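Protein modeling request. Please complete all fields; requests missing the sequence field cannot be processed.
Requester role: graduate student
Desired output: 3D structure, token encoding
Chains: 1
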Amino acid sequence: MNDHGKVSPARRRGLADEVADRIREAIFNGAYAPGAQLREVELSGEMDVSRGPVREGLRLLEREGLVRCAWHRGTTVTTLSAEDVAELDSLRGALEDLAVRQVIARASDEDLASVAKTADTMERAVDAHEMVRCDIAFHDAVFAASGHQRLADAWDGVRCQVHLFLLTRIGLTTEGYLDCVPREHRELVAALRARDVETALELFSAHRRHAVDVVSGTTDPSIRNALK
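Delivered output (228 residues):
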């Protein structure tokens, strides 16, 4: 029996996951901005691993939508196009609207307290990147409180791209960002706790639209047209 033949592939897959985790973290920390080149040779040297796990890790991130690989350009951190922004916004809106309805109909007071706790952490965010993490964590909590596993799974499939979208937003401007985001989320929590469906849906929509308006208002006209 060749024990090494059984163990080695699993170890390589685990290493690729670790590489993907570290590159994802660097993207979310702002070390690699949208459009940045991710070179296998440099990454393997920095992480002290061979190029194989780096290549596999980048493929994992490509499936998440965080990077794009092209034979003539190599691998780059995804830059969201007008169509990307429009599709992501419409899908996120559909998922979030269902989540809000589910939370108001089914969530316990303890569930709502967990959502509120994530909003409270925003008051302690020291920079825009940390605030984006808190924002994503808040929406994670909303989907968890929905009690709808397939809905939560659907959110998990796009959350990295939403994170990337919010990084794009703060990359354009952070003016007023650290002040307005906690306030917006306090209002979202209040609407959920009041179990006011219409107000909650309106506030969640306005919250999404605010970020989209920043992106569409400070980039090329094609994004504005795609979102009409």
